[in-house]
Amino acid sequence: MNMRKIVVGGMAAAALAGAGMCLGAGTASAAPDVVNRTFNDAKRMIQQSGGTAVIATRTGAGLEDGKCLVMNAWDAGYQRIVRGGMRANNEVLLALNCNGVLAGPGASGNSLASPVGREAKLKAEQEAAKRAAQQRQAQAAASNG
Question: Residue 49: which CATH number?
């Protein structure tokens, strides 16, 4: 009885493996690492690797597509039907965050707790300090001259 179960189980496994080969698994490809990049940058990187960028989901409406941040990227899990059968799909699906770069009172955006939010806050503070220093220099030059 046990030998019969082993033989039947082996035959079933072989049949499944054969069916998988007949259907074809497509070519293996991995989506390039484009998370936390703008859609424009991600699209360029995906095209350079031979893929096609497709927006699968979008959160927010504060930015135009090209400036949205990519929050996730994955290979399409389906094949394309073409004349003569199926072919592998080279599409890379993207989840975009189109909220503003940094959340504020009455404005949606990234939290300061996120890496993107902290980076945006640091950048904004550096730009503000640079503008303040330029204003001080301009005022000093005006009072001296």
Answer: 3.30.10.20
**Total residue length of the chain:** 145
**86 shares a domain with 30:** yes
- Give residue for tokens 């490809």: 29
Using an 8 Å Cβ cutoff, are 39 and 96 in contact? yes
Distance CA 89, CA 75 (A): 8
Residue 79: CB atoms within 10 Å:
15
Q: Are strands 52-59 and 91-97 parallel, antiparallel or unpaired?
A: parallel
What pLDDT, in 10s, does the model give residues 85-120? 777 788 999 999 888 777 777 777 778 888 878 888
Q: Is 91 inside any structural domain?
A: yes
Domains identified in the chain, total number: 2
DSSP secondary-structure letter at 83?
T
Instruction: Report pTM.
Output: 0.55
How many helices (H) and strands (E) in the chain? Answer: 3, 5
